[in-house]
Write a structure and sequence with these properties.
The protein is α/β, with parallel strands linked by helices. The chain starts with 8 loop residues before the first helix and ends with a helix. Bound molecules: zinc ion (2 copies).
């Protein structure tokens, strides 16, 4: 078992990541039977490469998935990517712009070809990255949302919903991006508080000498006003009902109507009504049958209907309208006003509410069942507080505009007849019009919102609408791990569409992970320049180390701080584990022991030493500790408390296995007696520990596990398929734990005392130990080990000890130091004592000066008193130590 001196993850990580796939280690078989654990990946967008947030998500998923696989579950992690409609189209459009090209010049077909090219590149990068970080997906089941079978599922769902009346086409007010030239769903609009103005405009009332004052933040829209509204409860204006107002600048007579749109408590209590450019006015317009006059077009310019303002950009028109009103003396007042401006999430252009004909999904009927699913806990959110977020949105759900004026995506399965305008929704292109028989049919040019297809992801990827074996075995899936930012976009829609299409909730649990932040707890962003790129740090520290650094901070409900320091410590941890293996493997070779590895499928019980016929204390202890670490790790992973699992395993490896067990075993190997049992116990303990660590650090553990001989043929080919260590009541050995605790306490006391006396830690010292009861027994039985590890020569004392002593309720320990060192130690102590006494005297002098004291705040006086008592206590300790030295 040759092992390199230095831990170099770069040398073996690429090998194992390939090997796992070539060997089909992560391949799930629907026929295998058994308890099922299945999970679909939140498909990353094919917009580039994966960032650290993805790596966190994939690492957490991988830990859970590997853990289930090792527990013997029929485990599937289904991977894939998302075409990500608008996001990907924009990336490609930007690339084209760099080449001086425009998609409209290229035409739809050529453009789509370019996007597919890009998809290939980005998809390959993503897959390569996931393989690199050890994501244990079943790549034979990889999917892309635009795959033929998934597109078939999309059409099937669209047609079914349409036939049920849950999809309709309608003229509605939508959020429109004049830059992207597409409708946006409410969720694709971000709102920003912006300083704007409220313009108060006078509208003369015809046939009277009165005016009505309306207020607006968008004066240019007045050009499209078709009414003025007052409230029927508002006595101030009631007599004007039925009359008309004269719309300034347009010279149009518009009715004065009664509508709740006007709030007597707000502003003047009068509002203008622009049905074509405001969602609330649109509704009011429907109530009163008002004409809709569209004065702003899809590109954000004024239409012919805007009269002399036609052709102007909407913001230029605003300026001109205000100027002209001012000239006419029709501006009553202008006040500063904070408003919530909606912007396109993708390009930040101010969104324009426009009326257009779009496809919608009726959400209320779908939402009801999805609410019940979570209320009845058939789906559980972890942490639980996300449930509230989910309900808030679901209770206020609005119809979902699913058509997008894009080219990249699933084309809407609707065909328009050129002759009679009939619209046919169908799974396949119809040959002729169902109404007039014309063959002049054209498919709707729009595509579906990207979340429509990802909403079907948990079942479309398993073969739905066919009742495949995969669908029967792996659906509903067990768990979803994702970010909070897509609870509405994605999680809620999967729940609604899953229940609607399959009759089952698509998953049982949803674990919402945190965000990655830097050392100052700031979000990582390109503009701040604090981004940690997995492509940079994984080669630097090793994938395993980055995984561990992420997990150690991944407590549910909190964000994760990731720093170079953390990754460095994690690499040190990997190093330490590597060195423990090196010690075991190389000593074994030196001692000429036959290579041996335990069979991980059987619980190993430490063997008795053939000389003493007992199981060595350190072996009893380490197996008991392994057992309790297994208990902690299983409980923690089962509850997605990744930080607890990582910390427990870290503590075990570093502070128990490496710091104590290996040190104790070193001494045994020097004794050179009864070696076989010692070796087997040590190797079995290490092998078990590797399996505990495997889900967290898959590469290092596979590498070391494979180096352990597999002479016990029949063991699994990979540690990834070996059983995860489980807690067993019989494996707990509290006596051994208690005894090693005493041993550790005595060694710790020697180290502390040595440090107190400022003795050279490398030099052996002499000392005396007075131990009581059980401690005496342990100390006597393990004296050589204590002496070797603590570098001390101990004599047992019958009487309790005084002087330079460490005492616990179980023992006193004193160290002797060479005369020269005692002299130096005494000098140091005397100097410290002198300083303390000076400080005390100094304070006393101040206390004595009443004038000075009278000016001091009570807080300061209090802290002075505190300081004084600390000095006195410290001085007493040093005096006692000095007394001890003179004895
Ligand atoms: Zn936009
Ligand atoms: Zn027709």
């Amino acid at each position: 078992m040759q092992i390199d001196k230095i831990y170099e993850p770069q040398r073996f990580e690429p090998h194992w990541s390939r090997w796992w796939i070539d060997q089909g280690i992560f391949h799930a078989s629907a026929k295998a039977g058994g308890r099922v654990f299945s999970l679909v990946i939140p498909p990353p967008n094919v917009t580039g490469s994966l960032h650290m947030g993805h790596m966190l998500e994939h690492t957490e998923i991988d830990v859970v998935v590997r853990w289930h696989r090792m527990r013997g579950d029929n485990t599937l992690w289904l991977p894939g990517t998302d075409h990500a409609g608008i996001a990907t189209q924009m990336v490609v459009e930007r690339k084209l712009a760099e080449e001086g090209l425009d998609r409209r010049q290229m035409g739809r077909e050529k453009f789509e070809e370019r996007v597919w090219q890009w998809k290939q590149e980005s998809g390959d990068t993503i897959k390569r990255q996931m393989i690199q970080i050890g994501a244990s997906c079943d790549w034979s089941r990889e999917h892309f949302t635009l795959d033929a079978d998934l597109s078939r599922a999309v059409r099937e769902v669209f047609v079914r919903l349409y036939e049920k009346g849950l999809i309709y086409r309608g003229q509605y007010m939508v959020n429109w991006c004049p830059r992207c030239l597409t409708a946006l769903s409410d969720l694709e609009v971000t709102h920003e508080e912006t300083q704007g103005h409220l313009w108060h405009i006078r509208y003369p009332v015809n046939g009277t000498d009165r005016v009505l004052v309306v207020a607006t933040t968008r004066p240019e829209t007045m050009l499209g006003d078709t009414a003025v509204a007052i409230n029927e409860m508002d006595a101030r204006y009631l007599d004007l009902h039925g009359k008309t107002a004269q719309l300034p600048l347009m010279d149009r007579e518009i009715p004065i109507i009664l509508d709740d749109l006007a709030d007597p408590e707000f502003g003047t209590g009068v509002v203008k009504v622009t049905p074509a450019h405001d969602p609330n006015d649109f509704e009011a317009g429907r109530r009163h049958n008002l004409p809709r006059i569209k004065v702003i077009d899809e590109t954000g310019h004024m239409t012919e209907a805007a009269g002399r303002y036609a052709g102007l950009d909407r913001f230029e028109a605003r300026k001109r309208v205000v100027e002209d009103l001012e000239k006419l003396g029709l501006i009553a007042k202008i006040e500063p006003y904070m408003l919530n401006v909606g912007k396109c999430q993708r390009c930040k252009t101010i969104v324009e509410p426009l009326i257009s004909t779009q496809w919608f999904v009726k959400m209320k009927p779908l939402a009801e069942k999805a609410i019940t699913a979570v209320e009845s806990k058939r789906i559980e959110f972890i942490p639980e507080n996300w449930t509230k977020t989910y309900f808030e949105w679901m209770y206020n759900i609005r119809d979902w505009c699913v058509s997008r004026q894009l080219w990249w995506g699933h084309r809407i399965p609707a065909w328009h007849c050129g002759k009679c305008q009939e619209i046919m929704v169908a799974r396949e292109a119809p040959a002729s019009c169902a109404r007039c028989g014309s063959a002049e049919l054209e498919q709707d040019p729009d595509v579906l919102d990207t979340w429509f297809s990802s909403g079907l992801w948990p079942f479309s990827t398993l073969g739905w609408p066919d009742q495949t074996e995969d669908l029967q075995v792996y659906y509903p899936t067990s768990l979803l791990i994702t970010g909070f930012d897509i609870i509405f976009f994605w999680v809620a829609r999967m729940i609604m569409l899953g229940i609607e299409c399959t009759g089952h909730e698509p998953f049982r649990q949803v674990y919402i992970h945190g965000l990655i932040r830097d050392a100052e707890r700031q979000k990582m962003s390109k503009t701040k320049g604090n981004v940690i790129d997995p492509l940079v740090v994984t080669p630097k520290y090793g994938t395993d180390a980055v995984r561990l650094a992420l997990l150690i901070g991944a407590a549910p409900g909190t964000d994760i701080v990731l720093t170079e320091n953390r990754m460095e410590s994690a690499r040190n941890f990997a190093n330490k584990t590597w060195n423990a293996a090196r010690f075991l493997f190389s000593n074994m070779e030196r001692s000429g022991v036959e290579p041996w590895a335990p069979d991980p499928r059987r619980a190993y019980r430490p063997e008795a030493d053939t000389e003493t016929l007992g199981v060595p204390l350190e072996d009893r202890w380490i197996f008991s500790r392994l057992n309790s670490c297994a208990e902690q790790a299983n409980a923690a992973i089962g509850q997605y408390r990744f930080h607890e699992a990582a910390q427990a395993i870290w503590h075990f490896f570093w502070h128990e296995f490496c710091d104590w067990y290996v040190e104790l075993k070193k001494l045994r190997f020097q004794e050179n007696t009864g070696l076989d049992a010692h070796w087997r116990n040590a190797l079995a303990a290490f092998e078990t520990a590797l399996r505990l660590l495997h889900p967290v650090m898959p590469f290092l553990t596979e590498e070391l596990w494979q180096r352990m001989s597999d002479s016990s043929s029949g063991r699994p080919v990979s540690i990834a398929l070996a059983p995860y260590p489980q807690y067993s009541h019989e494996a707990a050995d509290l006596t051994a734990e208690r005894e090693v605790q005493v041993l550790q306490d005595i060694v710790g006391a020697v180290r502390d005392l040595r440090a107190d006396m400022k003795l050279d830690p490398g030099k052996r010292v002499s000392g005396a130990l007075h131990a009581r009861g059980k401690a005496l027994q342990v100390a006597t039985a393990n004296l050589p080990a204590i002496e070797a590890i603590a570098k001390v020569k101990l004599s047992f004392s019958q009487a309790s000890l005084k002087g330079a002593v460490r005492s616990t309720h179980e023992f006193d320990l004193a160290l002797e130091a060479p005369a020269a060192e005692i002299g130096a130690h005494r000098k140091r102590l005397e100097k410290e004592l002198e300083q303390l006494e000076k400080n005390t005297a100094n304070l006393d002098a101040q206390f004595a000066n009443e004038q000075v004291m009278a000016k001091k705040p009570a807080k300061i006086i209090e802290s002075m008193r505190q300081k004084r008592s600390e000095y006195v206590a410290q001085a007493a300790k040093i005096k006692a130590a000095l007394d001890g030295l003179s004895e």
